[in-house]
C-alpha cells in the first residue's frame, strides 16, 4: 500500500509529495516539527505535543497553520489512510514559501506537512528494551528548547553513536555538564540514589514524555530532582535511562563501553517503565484517533 502524506491541504501518495524549492524550511531550516507516538491506534500524550508545537511556533513567530481541532482531524486522517496501529505521526510546519531572503517575509501562509509510518509494538519487557550510550560534545545552537528542523548537530551525534554500536549519544556541554541525548531526555539515579534530570532551560528540549513521566511520578509519590548532572556524576550513576516519544523509558546499561551499575535495568527504571506502559495503554488523556478531545497540556515550560 502506498503511504499517504498531507501536504498543504491535500492528501497525496507520499512518493508524489513535494514542496516548493523556496519553502523556507528547505532554504533556512525555518520551521518546527512534532512527533506523536501511535500505540494500539491511540495517540499518546497528544495534548502535550500540540502544546509544545504551539510554543515552538510562538517562539519563532510562525502563525499556526490551523487550530488544534482541525490539525487533529488531519493527524487522524493521515493515520487512518496509512492504517497505522503502532507507529508515529510526524508534522512539520515551515514559515512558508517566499523569495529567498534572510528576513521574515510578510503575508506568507505557513506550510504544513504530515506523514505517518508503522513502527514496532510497545515493548512489554524492559530487559529486552535496553541500550548502550556514548558521550559526545553538545555543539547545538543556544535555543534547543524550540523544536526546530535544524537537527544537523543531533544527526552528527546520533551517527557517532551508531558507528560505536550504541543507541544514543548523551551530550555534554562546554562546562562538563549533561544536557540531553541527541533525541532523548536523560535521567540518572546518582551514586547517592537520587533520581535526577536536568531542569528546563534554553539548552534542552522540554520533552513531552519527560512531562508525562514526571506527572506519573508525582501521582505515585516517587521523588526526583530537576537538577543538572556533571559528566563525572553521570559516569558514577547507579542507573541511566532515556525518555522520548519513541524511546518511552529505555535503560542504558553501558556508557562509553563501561557497565552502568550492574549492567542491567535498575529498580527505578523498572518502576517507571511499568507506569508508562500502563499510561500508554489507555490513560484518560491519551487520545484515540477517532476522538477530537484534547488533554490539558501544562508543565512543559
UniProtKB/TrEMBL annotation:
Key words, A-Z: Amino-acid biosynthesis, Aminotransferase, Branched-chain amino acid biosynthesis, Pyridoxal phosphate, Transferase
GO molecular function, one term: L-isoleucine-2-oxoglutarate transaminase activity
Pfam family, one: Aminotran_4
Reactions the enzyme catalyzes: L-isoleucine + 2-oxoglutarate = (S)-3-methyl-2-oxopentanoate + L-glutamate; L-valine + 2-oxoglutarate = 3-methyl-2-oxobutanoate + L-glutamate; L-leucine + 2-oxoglutarate = 4-methyl-2-oxopentanoate + L-glutamate
GO cellular component assignments: cytosol
Superkingdom to which the source organism belongs: Bacteria
InterPro entries in UniProt: Aminotrans_IV, Aminotransferase-like, BCAT-like_C, BCAT-like_N, Class-IV_PLP-Dep_Aminotrnsfr
EC number: 2.6.1.42
Enzyme's top EC category: transferase
GO terms of biological process kind: amino acid biosynthetic process; branched-chain amino acid biosynthetic process
Cofactor (UniProt): pyridoxal 5'-phosphate
Alphabetized NCBIfam families for the sequence: PRK06680.1
Function: Acts on leucine, isoleucine and valine.
Entry protein name: Probable branched-chain-amino-acid aminotransferase
Organism: Acidiphilium cryptum (strain JF-5)
Amino acid at each position: 500500500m502506498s503511504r499517504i502524506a498531507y501536504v498543504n491541504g491535500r492528501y497525496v501518495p507520499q512518493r508524489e509529495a513535494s514542496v516548493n524549492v523556496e519553502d523556507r524550511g528547505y532554504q533556512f531550516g525555518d520551521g518546527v516539527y512534532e512527533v506523536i507516538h501511535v500505540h494500539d491506534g491511540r495517540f499518546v500524550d497528544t495534548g502535550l505535543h500540540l502544546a509544545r508545537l504551539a510554543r515552538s511556533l510562538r517562539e519563532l513567530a510562525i502563525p499556526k497553520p490551523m487550530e488544534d481541532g482541525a490539525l487533529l482531524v488531519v493527524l487522524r486522517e493521515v493515520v487512518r489512510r496509512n492504517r497505522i496501529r503502532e507507529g508515529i505521526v510526524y508534522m512539520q510546519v515551515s514559515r512558508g514559501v517566499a523569495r529567498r531572503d534572510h528576513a521574515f517575509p510578510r503575508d506568507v501562509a505557513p506550510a504544513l506537512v504530515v506523514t505517518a509510518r508503522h513502527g514496532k509494538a510497545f515493548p512489554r519487557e524492559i530487559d529486552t528494551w535496553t541500550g548502550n550510550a556514548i558521550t559526545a560534545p553538545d555543539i547545538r545552537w543556544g535555543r534547543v528548547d524550540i523544536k526546530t528542523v535544524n537537527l544537523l548537530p543531533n544527526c552528527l551525534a546520533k551517527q557517532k553513536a551508531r558507528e560505536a554500536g550504541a543507541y544514543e549519544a548523551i551530550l555534554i556541554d562546554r562546562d562538563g555538564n549533561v544536557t540531553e541525548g541527541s533525541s532523548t531526555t536523560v535521567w540518572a539515579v546518582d551514586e547517592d540514589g537520587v533520581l535526577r534530570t536536568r531542569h528546563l532551560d534554553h539548552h534542552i528540549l522540554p520533552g513531552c514524555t519527560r512531562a508525562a513521566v514526571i506527572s506519573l511520578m508525582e501521582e505515585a509519590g516517587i521523588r526526583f530532582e530537576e537538577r543538572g548532572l556533571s559528566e563525572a556524576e553521570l559516569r558514577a550513576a547507579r542507573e541511566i535511562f532515556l525518555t522520548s516519544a519513541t524511546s518511552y523509558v529505555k535503560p542504558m546499561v553501558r556508557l562509553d563501553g563501561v557497565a552502568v551499575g550492574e549492567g542491567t535495568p535498575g529498580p527505578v527504571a523498572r518502576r517507571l517503565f511499568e507506569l508508562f506502559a500502563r499510561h500508554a495503554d489507555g490513560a484518560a488523556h491519551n487520545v484515540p484517533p477517532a476522538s477530537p478531545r484534547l488533554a490539558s497540556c501544562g508543565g512543559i515550560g
